[in-house]
Amino acid sequence: MSVKYDHKEIELRWQAEWEEKSAFAARPGQGEKYYCLEMFPYPSGKIHMGHVRNYSIGDVLARFLRMRGMNVLHPMGWDSFGLPAENAAIEHSIHPAKWTHENIAFMRRQLKRMGLGFDWTREISTCSPEYYKWNQWIFLKFYEKGLAYKRRSTVNWCPGCSTVLANEQVEEGLCWRCASAVEAKDLEQWFFRITDYAEELLDFTHKLPGWPERVLVMQRNWIGKSMGAEVSFPVDGSDEVIRIFTTRPDTLYGVTFMTLAPEHPLVERITAKDTLEEVRSFVKEVVREKKGAGAAALEKLDKKGVFTGAFCVNPLTGAKVPVYVANFVLMEYGTGAVMAVPAHDQRDFEFARAYGLPVKVVINPRGKTLEAESMEEAYVGEGILVNSGPFDGMLNTDAVDAIIDHLEEEGVGRRSINYKLRDWGISRQRYWGCPIPVIYCKACGTVGVDLEDLPVVLPEEVRLTGTGRSPLESAGEFVNTVCPRCKGEARRETDTMDTFVDSSWYFLRYLSPGDDKKPFEKEDARYWMPVDQYIGGIEHAVMHLLYARFFTKALRDLGLHTLDEPFKNLLTQGMVCKETARCGDHGFLSPGEVTGDGKCGVCGAAVEFGAVEKMSKSKKNTIDPDGIIERYGADTTRLFSLFAAPPEKDMEWSAEGVEGSYRFLGRVWRLVTENALLLEDTTTYDEGKDPSLDDSPPLKDLHRITHGTIKKVTGDIEKRFHFNTAISSIMELVNAVYALVRGDSFNNPVGAKVFRESVETVVLLLAPFAPHITEELWQRLGNETPLYKSKWPVLSEDALVKDEVTLVVQVNGRVRAKVVVPVDSTDDDVKEAVMKDARVAEWAGGKELKKFIHVPGRLVNLVVR
Q1: Which are the contacts of 92, defined by CB distance < 8 A and separation ≥ 6?
Q2: Sequence-distant (≥ 6) Cβ neighbours of residue 367 within 8 angstroms
Q3: What angle in degrees, to the nearest 10, is found between the helix axes of 749-766 and 723-741?
């Protein structure tokens, strides 16, 4: 008699058991380690289906590896500083700390309700002084080493968030978080010298075989290493020199003008008096529209510029060329000055044609002669140098080194390497972040806070205005302090750190979360690191992941550990998507606003379903996991999110898919509860001791399928992360068991043993995906050891050996029958079996057999006429 599957009661009971027993607490040094980590969440208030999928992927791996005997570290924490909390505080008059801690408490309950096997004893929160104390400690160590410094710079300013953004946080000229148009602003800023590690960061992208190539390419492009030459162009009639970096020294003889970035410091110094007002007006106009736009956005801009009235001298030809300020030149790349060769650079060509500037050909395609006046576009291919002095007649690619040698001999240039990567600006003019531990003293200058005085605690009584100035400036008791050197009056830094600092080393704090003497124990790092599997979104490829790699290398050089890279393997999971639903009168509808018969729940009009798109709150197409868990259970929610698509692919939401997962778990439940008598025999089949299995082909086949499923599921999880195909294999095994359980094959001792083996295998294999129902069924099967402490099923390779094989039979190339023969059958044995088959006789009987083709283990083809 079946027992009802009460998912809520079962799940809550086992979650309480796991918590009481600290079931997933990791202990260093206890066997072979495995560090499994998903990117920790921002406590925005509620988990969404993206969280469910991300953390379910990691949980499957962690549970599977524990069952395989690994010592697994699988921690969880909160990336809890940041702009949303401060913006919510301003909007709703609630303190960011209160908003954040309430959200953490709510989301923690949700994650536990998912049954995720985290080691909660290691939980961290980056807004806790116990955590950000070590942010400050690391900052001061960086400062001592010269990796942290302050300078005035033109920065990316987001008016929506009222703060500075790093270059990596600007996407197509817009703020990565709020999509406001980014502006330029001159501010004193703190920077981390990530450029000191540019070459190593680039080099190690070729030493990370466990990372997706897509992510590595994105990082290589962001670092942007270029080999070339730095060349000096003296300004005519001045002591000033314009220094440029070029990857095309072979075109130096074709320079016809020079372009400077609007922010270039030479603009004011070399501009002629009669053009100064026009130049200043132009600079003011274009700085705002281009700052932070990035290369892709700049390519779309109309090429605009203004003549400074100044000329510089080409050091190789002695020719004077006009100097322009142009809107397409980035101060952040190279030197902020670009030599213009319009005949061989399309952007320069467009600018030259727009402003009537000369075009000088210095490279001809083989066998052709270019005429500057008739060119409709720049020629950027290989060719023979012309108009290039002593280098005429050389292939341009061969001439590069020779021209650089000449520049160095003449003392006007040198070989150089350039990187697009710029130092990381970490200053933020907001409240809810880690205070920068620096004091300014009139007598002593810039002074780091003494290490023993850390943490510099964020004051609670602060007025939040969102006006663009740091709220900490108004906190007098915080700002006014004493210099640690001279004991005189001083003031604190009021900027806070970019929250990406918090997430750049959190994976190391998990190792020693209670340590109050250092950020983490070196021995803990030696045992647990690197992270064996890191899981998170592709959107962090050139922000979080690059910063985490930099921090790891910098902390290594401080002697805190010996690691080169933080993450051995990286999985970037796909998005959760959903078909859109739109009402003509009420726009896009959330799932709850669509009735079961496809109508708008507001007005009753027919709903138009459209393209599948990423779930997001702004599109009103999110799914509330709490509702799914309440109705179907955490196991169903997890199972569906893992079965719908491979982890790296986008997953389309499907209500039918959720129902299907729930029905499957119900079948597994009934398989155990409705066959209690058959499952009472707790012994397992031993192939070596029980030869009577050979007397029952159906049982032997099930035994083989069971072990084939063990092999398939193990490989799918361990080697490929193909969780969807692993679940499908378990479903097939369940079908195979059900196919036999209705007959009398199990009504004998051998049958009972095979049945129990197959059912226990189903439960064990399903455990990482649906841990609650399997714990319950494991107990109902009479096992005293909890499933989370049990071992993964052992594969018997002998069980996989087939005694028989099914051959497809074709007659004149068309499939007509299937026959089953012993695997060791000879060609004559196969021919005899095939010719006796009734279906074959129907198509080949009475006809002349011209050919008999046997492909062992696969097919037979008869050619008759």
Answers
A1: 99
A2: none
A3: 160
**Given a cut of 80, is residue 677 above it in pLDDT?**
no
Q: pLDDT digit string (tens) for 367-399?
A: 999 999 999 999 999 999 999 999 999 999 999
Closest CA to 301 of 311, 313, 316, 291: 291
pLDDT of 20 strictly over 70: yes
The length of the chain, given as a count of residues: 865
Torsion (CA) 658, 663, 669, 675 in degrees, nearest 10:
-170
Burial of 37 (0-12, 13-18, 19+ CB in 10 A): buried
Nearest to 548 by CA among 424, 419, 717: 424
Angle ∠(201,428,166) on CA atoms, nearest 5: 35
Report whether 563 contacts 522 (CB < 8 A).
Answer: no
Q: Are 660 and 636 in contact (CB under 8 A)?
A: no
pTM of the model: 0.85
CA distance linking residue 75 with residue 605, whole number of Å: 48
pLDDT at 408 over 90: yes
Contacting residues for 797 by C-beta, under 8 A, at least 6 apart: 707
Q: Are 261 and 328 in contact (CB under 8 A)?
A: no
How far apart are the C-alpha atoms of 856 and 389, rounded to whole Å? 74
462-499 pLDDT, tens digit per residue, is: 888 666 678 899 899 999 999 999 999 999 999 999 99
Q: Is the Cβ–Cβ distance between 240 and 432 less than 8 Å?
A: no
Q: In the structure encoding, which two tokens stand for residue 135, read together? A: 């942010």
Strand order in 225-234's β-sheet? Answer: 241-246, 225-234, 413-419
Alpha-carbon distance 790 to 774, whole Å? 12
Q: Do 691 and 798 form a contact (C-beta atoms < 8 A)? A: no
Token output for 260: 């400077």
Q: Which residues contact 325 (CB under 8 A, 6 or more apart)?
A: 259, 260, 261, 262, 264, 267, 279, 282, 283, 305, 306, 308
What is the rounded distance in angstroms from the CA atom of residue 74 to the CA atom of residue 23? Answer: 12
H or E stretch covering 557: helix 544-557
* Residue with the two structure tokens 């209690």: 676
